[in-house]
Amino acid sequence: MSTSTCGIKELPGGTPARDEAGPAATPFRADGADSPDWLLQRWGVMLLIRRAEEAIAAMVEAGEVRCPCHLYIGQEAVAAGVAAALTPSDTVWGGHRSHGHYLAKGGSLEKLFAEVLGRTSGCSGGRGGSMHLASPEVGIFGTVPIVAGTVPLAVGAAFASRMRGGKDVAVAFFGDGALEEGHLHESLNLAAVYRLPVLFVCENNLYSSHLHWSERRVADNLDLAGEFHSVPGTRVDGNDAVAVYRAAHRAIEGARRGEGPSLLECRTFRWRGHVGAGWDTDVGVARRGELAEWLNRDPLARVAERLAVLGVHDLAARERVVLNRVADAVARARAGASPDRGRVLQHVWAEAACAP
Predict the structure, then answer these.
(1) Contact present, 61 and 122 (Cβ < 8 Å)
(2) DSSP 38-70
(3) What separation, in Å, do the N-terminal and C-terminal C-alpha atoms of the chain show?
(4) Of 151, 166, 232, 256, most Cβ neighbours within 10 A?
(5) pLDDT 10s digit of each residue in the chain, 356 long?
């Protein structure tokens, strides 16, 4: 493939971005993606993720939440955009930074707070904490903190859908560092061989923990990671919910038609550190000073600007509703019971068949 930069635009940091439609594709316009109702819905999803995570960050800083928390603030457009292209029976598979995926797919807000607080009313019974979220009723069968750990599971879910003769699609969310894991490439190849209905979504926030991509790779070509396996790749502005939706919708509908897997690289940036509530430091290592630039590319503000042009000006009132919803959910989660000490090993150790 040519490395020419002809016909491509620039993303933050002077990085070239390949056109999301691809060189041979025709412009794609999904019905309703520019309507006030659609934009309001996506803005609401992103705002819910943002305010929920800010509440978790405050509890982390206060010492109330003791489990490790990897916050999604700044990346909300990816989860909100992809989820808009999914049906309730489609499945999503995430990693350690999956609060946004969970909420965008319809997971319970109260159960998320209860889980990070270690309450039995949590979505995983208070046993999983921030990184082990489950909500099977909305297509979330578990998130896993092992890097790229859920990618093979997403492929398995897509294989199961194919065997059942269904149309459900599986979506694997992962960070840029996951593309350096061998089992992700094995998953890409298997999905391609069987033309499985799966979308691989790389949320490239530039850093794998504290290492910038340029310290780990020769070239900025993550969107081409599936090329060797004949999995087409697309790079998109991950802070633009509409652009993410259109690219995801195109890939997901193609998967439903039997066209096989696709890879979507969403270029974005997390505002907080790799883990915890800190702002511009990753595990004790200062980042390169990109935060100020990315704060100006706030995905919520971009949708709000579009809404203002369309005559929608009541976002402050809508935000108060979301803030009240978050506060109520936190209060209910705090009132939940802590796990019984006598059941602390339940679901951890299996009883031997010959045990008395």
Answers:
(1) no
(2) HHHHHHHHHHHHHHHHHHHHHHHHTTS--S---
(3) 64
(4) 151
(5) 333 333 333 444 444 444 343 322 323 344 578 899 999 999 999 999 999 999 999 999 999 998 989 999 999 999 999 999 999 999 999 999 999 999 999 999 999 999 999 999 999 999 899 999 999 999 999 999 999 999 999 999 999 999 999 999 999 999 998 888 899 999 999 999 999 999 999 999 888 888 788 778 888 888 999 999 999 999 999 999 999 999 999 999 999 999 999 999 999 988 888 888 878 777 777 777 888 888 899 999 999 999 999 999 999 999 999 999 999 999 999 999 998 888 777 777 776 666 55
Residues 173, 179: contact at Cβ < 8 Å?
A: no
d(CA 83, CA 106): 9
The closest alpha carbon to 105, from 124, 78, 86, belongs to 86
Which has the closest alpha carbon to 283: 274, 294, 292? 274
| Token pair in block for residue 215 | 């310290």
Q: Could you say which DSSP state residue 96 is in? A: S
CATH class given for the domain over 40-343: alpha beta
